[in-house]
Amino acid sequence: MKREPAIKLRIKDILTGKFFPAEKESMKPSYLLTTYGRKVSRVNILATITDKFINEDESYVSFTLDDGSGSIKAKAFRDVVKLVKNLEIGDMAIVIGKIREWNEELYISIEVARRVEDPNYEIYRKLELIKEILPYKRMVLELRSMREKMSEEEFIREAKKRFGLEEFVIETLLKSEEEEKDYKSEVLKVVRELDAGEGVDVV
User: Fold this and answer.
1) Against a cut of 0.85, is the pTM above it?
2) Are 34 and 17 spatial neighbours (Cβ–Cβ below 8 Å)?
3) Band of the pLDDT at 8, cuts 50, 70, 90?
4) Is 100:108 a contact under the CB 8 Å cutoff?
5) Pair 43, 96: CB distance under 8 Å
6) Among the listed residues 74, 20, 68, 21, the one whose alpha carbon sits nearest the alpha carbon of residue 43
7) The domain 6-115 is classified under which CATH number: 3.20.20.80, 3.10.20.340, 2.40.50.140, 1.10.10.60?
8) 155 Cα distance to chain centroid
């Protein structure tokens, strides 16, 4: 089975998304549907470690991650623990893993994690995230506009045809209550932070 790519997200995108557990009968893996329509199984998060717990026999470690948009637990078990146990509170880290749910709480099951030494990396990540999210945001806005102009049957048919979305995905997106945001100001802010006087390539 082909391994799913690790998608760069904000923690907020995980917390506000809708989680779909794995289906044993149909062999469908678990995944998260973000409020802007992206299906995600594995994530790539850049965040600061604000809390850490490791048990006595070092078979389990839990970190609390915060990226400014929200906080989430990231957990490692057994052999993975030795790869990440040296991360400490206050470290900025890249954490890659699968989204899981336990007791109705989402967390990241760590596959790999590493400390980030360059403080400027956070600024570059913000720009990457904006570039990733914008096309999906535009799609949601277009869906809402289409719905206002068409009957329900026409809308579902056209949305499936134009975007290749399943009906339940379309319904989930339109039920999203996430406040729409003007990302132009966010882009300009990050570009100003990156610009050293010679211009910045954002293509």
Assistant:
1) no
2) yes
3) very high
4) yes
5) yes
6) 74
7) 2.40.50.140
8) 28
